[in-house]
Design brief:
By secondary structure, this protein is mostly beta strands. The longest helix has 23 residues, at 183-205. The radius of gyration is 26 Å and the shape is elongated. It has one helix at residues 183-205, and strands at 11-15, 26-27, 42-49, 53-60, 62-67, 69-75, 93-99, 105-112, 115-122, 130-136, 146-149, 161-163, 171-177. 11% of the residues lie in helices and 37% in strands. The strands form three sheets. Strands 7-6-9-3-11-12 form a six-stranded antiparallel beta sheet, with no helix packed on it.
């Protein structure tokens, strides 16, 4: 199913850099507005969550989209910085969406715990078939952790995951961090638990009424 553009208002959980003016930007491979996302020429980036979060949308600075693309969030195993499958292993894909058009954000509802993840865009998987250009040119961060999945023409022996030798392409994850109670709320909760425990102890300590001789307490 083709996703609709995501509503505005969600907070930014991750972005590769602060998206600026596109003037003078170039696409990531050719230096021009080339078909840089296709089948299977996929772009990904690593991101880390320090706390649990609910993802609401993912996006990128697409120049144009012909046909359909996918966007996916994948688990990256401990100590590894790339997906492990060709293209993915079972359970590696935590959530995905498919879309057409060049909107900046697309809906994806997903709950994630703390950890390291990959955000991947491409075509030729999850029923998609298309291609897109994507803008580059922002360099706010020295190392954004990009990687890509290359096709047969790039790598003899078949496509595989590779670390990318570039940076500056805008990719983003939107959503909300899990709510953390304020200190005053924690105090109220602790006092409430303490009062409940005290009431239970007092109830269990009450003496039972004496029964006539020969009769036993039930239970």
């Amino acid at each position: 199913m083709i996703a609709s553009p995501a509503p505005a208002g969600a907070g930014v959980l991750f972005e590769t850099h602060s998206q600026g003016d596109r003037e003078g930007s170039v696409s990531i491979f050719s230096g021009d507005y080339n078909d840089v996302l296709g089948n299977p020429q996929w772009l990904g980036v690593r991101f880390t969550l320090d706390a649990a979060a609910h993802v609401t949308a993912i996006g990128a600075a697409f120049d144009y989209v012909e046909g359909s693309l996918f966007g996916a969030i994948v688990a990256l195993p401990d100590g590894l910085l790339l997906p492990t499958g060709t293209p993915f292993d079972d359970g590696e894909v935590l959530g995905y969406t498919t879309f057409s058009g060049g909107e900046p954000l697309y809906d994806l509802s997903l709950d994630l715990g703390p950890g390291v993840y990959g955000l991947v865009f491409g075509s030729g998987y999850f029923g998609t078939q298309g291609f897109s250009g994507i803008w580059a040119g922002g360099f706010d961060e020295p190392d954004d952790g990009y990687f890509f999945y290359g096709n047969q023409g790039q790598f003899p022996g078949g496509p595989r995951w590779q670390h990318a030798g570039f940076r500056g392409t805008y990719l983003t994850v939107h959503g909300e961090l899990a709510a953390v109670p304020e200190p005053a709320v924690w105090v109220t909760l602790i006092l409430g638990f303490a009062l409940v425990g005290r009431a239970i102890r007092r109830s269990s300590a009450r003496p039972r009424a004496a029964l006539p001789s020969g009769e036993a307490h039930p239970g």
